[in-house]
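Researcher: Please predict.
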Amino acid sequence: MMVAEAPQTIPAPAPFPEDGRRVILYLIDDRRDEVGDDAIASLRALRPWATEIVAIVRAGTDAAGADRLSTVADTIVVHSAPSMDMLAFSTAIREARISIERADEVVFTGNSWYGPVRDLGPVFERMDAQALHAWQMTGNVDGRPETFPEEGFPGRVFSWLWLAVRGDVVRSRGWAELWPTSIVPQHEFAAALEGAGYRTGEAFAAADYPRGDPALFAPDLLIEDGFPLLSKAVFAQYPPFLDRHAVLGRELLEVVDDYGFPVAGILKDLARNVPPKALNAIGGMLEVLPDVSLGYDPSKPFRIAVIAYVPDVAFIAELKERLVNLPTGFDLVVTTGDGGRARAIERALAAWQDAPFARFETRVSWLRRGRDKAALFIACRDLILGDDYDLLVAVHGRVSPRKTDNMQNYSRRHQLDNLLGSPGYVENVLGLFQREQGLGLVFPPMVHIGNAIMGRGWGAYREPALALCKRLGVKVPLDRVTPLAPFGGMWVGRPDALRPLARERWSDNDYGKQGRRTHVELGRVQERLIPLVAAEQGYHCRTVLNSEHAAISHTSLEFKADQMFSTTRGYPVEQIRFMHRLGFTGHGGVVALTRMYLRLNHPKLARATAPLYRVLFRTFTIAQRIRQGLGRLINEYGAGA
């Protein structure tokens, strides 16, 4: 038996000298090829601790970002390959060779974190005094986190969080032998250095925390202990995965805010780079608001316009009941479909004693299609594009002939109660906008009682939404299953958040022809895109409920989720993954069950037979329609006889 020799221990270096030269290599891996505000802020904070900062960007990074970067970095290195992996650091070492040759320490980091959220000084002082060849801010003994590619979360690869290495190590032959040529996690390379005999350490040892990857699973504990960085990886995870480990983004942001770091900058970056519904879940961005006003400052009122789509004059009575809950002095713009209704609406509003609005007007939207969305983006386009208002309130009285009275009544209550429920409640909604300049829209969460939209919120609108996003220049990633959207079409928002949609010159024809599938397509696509358009400009959204609807919604959801998960084992993340592997169940017939069996147990065969399944599914659908048509003919013929 051959026994491997223990690695030779390399003599410990002297502590970092007081006048030592520290070169920071800061890798910017941005999916938009931009230089974000968060990167600029981080580099400014690093400036006092660096002799030289070398920023590494991908070829094609926007010129404006490069100009901003030049104000905080000494050298900008352009990496030509599309992948910002270990070769990007190699490019920086080669381009900044003279600086590296004189460096006492080289720091490998990048835009993989927000911060610093705590003072960097104590960390540098403590680690500079130690005789180490390399040190990490914190390590990871858990290994690489689980990924969920089928759920739309393949595991985003970020640049290293923080690895500081002595200059003579970087310049050594051993470094060249150890340095990887592809993406390797920071902790694995640090382990390779230790295995080669170098002395390594951690400013905040992973072993001291409940989970072996504390930057991901215990960031709040790290920060409370003085850890200066907040890893972006926390916000790039699949929400049910974070749920399994009880990692709460909302509480984490509150911890960061308590230490004085501007959370607004974090939310702006997250809004532009995380699917909106995922961010809503990770950040716990549902607000349950009371009917008693808390935190609203009446000395700083908003200029508000209410845009109300009124297809039936009878809705005016209910509209009045809701409008009295707004602070007085707003403007009311009512849209409707013909001149007769407009005159009736004007008479009803003119007769209103002690009306809370400063002025009102009616606009006739002669559009035959598009309903409230066409009235909003065509008839009221000027209100969105202008600068006369700080906030817009969109409400409507349209009804769906396909729903029962119970379904329609609850759906309307869900919308109106949770936006305009009472004077105190409305002030709390407005208070959110006062406190958060980056808050773009507020609306009730997706209604799930009396509706079957859960799990199929995109429906047939995902592809049109992708096409419209491309047209509008929206690069925010889309949620895989259901978007975060004001389903029902009622919201409160800043005009600037919607302007890209209003800048388009929509026409009646864009909303399709009666009887065709495109009849409702554009309006529903627009409804689903509103938060995405806002997010592209850096605005985040919040959903709101009053206490009554929170009680109704949560108990209903809890019971439904309990029933849905009753036949599968494990945490919800495992149960969801299992169901996604099975695929669409259809009506549970023989063909669907066979396909599900193949997807679960023989995925390669399932992929090979997918075209045959689609043919069988279409054949079955056509046969069903023929049978139903024949049944109607037989019934009509029999009735006639």
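Model: Residues 146 and 357 are 54 Å apart (CA to CA).
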